[in-house]
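Protocol step 4 of 5: obtain the predicted structure for the target chain.
Materials: sequence only (see below). No template structures provided, no constraints applied. The aim of this step is simply to have a reference model before the mutagenesis design in step 5. Sequence pasted as it appears in the construct record:
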Amino acid sequence: MSPLHSIPLTFNDGSEGDFGRFAGKAVLVVNVASACGYTKQYAGLEELYGKYRDKGLEVLGVPCNQFGGQEQGSDAEIAEFCQRNFGVTFPLMSKSNVLGKQQHPLYAELTRPAEGAEVQKVKWNFEKFLVSRDGELLARFPSAVEPDSAELIGALEDALA
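Step 4 output (structure tokens):
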């Protein structure tokens, strides 16, 4: 079992579980925000989810207010915004920190450096982490990489193959 699978998660609706609920699926983990220049990527993430969900993809949105105060809403407000504006059906976590002393354990693991490497902190909203079906980090994409980019789609299709 991957170290990721035992990490506890609290979802936007208050339910709890762990990352192990995604075992056997490729997961695209994205720190999201409602008032960011990249917010429109919600639409592309939902499109990816719709296209690849039956092939084993999960998208996990992680609302975060650590970049420019661009996610100030409550969990309920965030869920309503995502549904109303982008038709989001993929799971959202409860608002979480992706940096600092209060960093969510999921992000501590996703950004854990390889031995001898430097920590690569999350730089902005809508950074994307692609996790394999067995819980291994496969790829990381900066905010500017759109959900429908050839680079991301290629890595995703390889992960699902």
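Step 4 remarks: The helical segments are 41-52, 75-86, 105-110, 150-160. The chain has one domain: 3-160.
Proceed to step 5.
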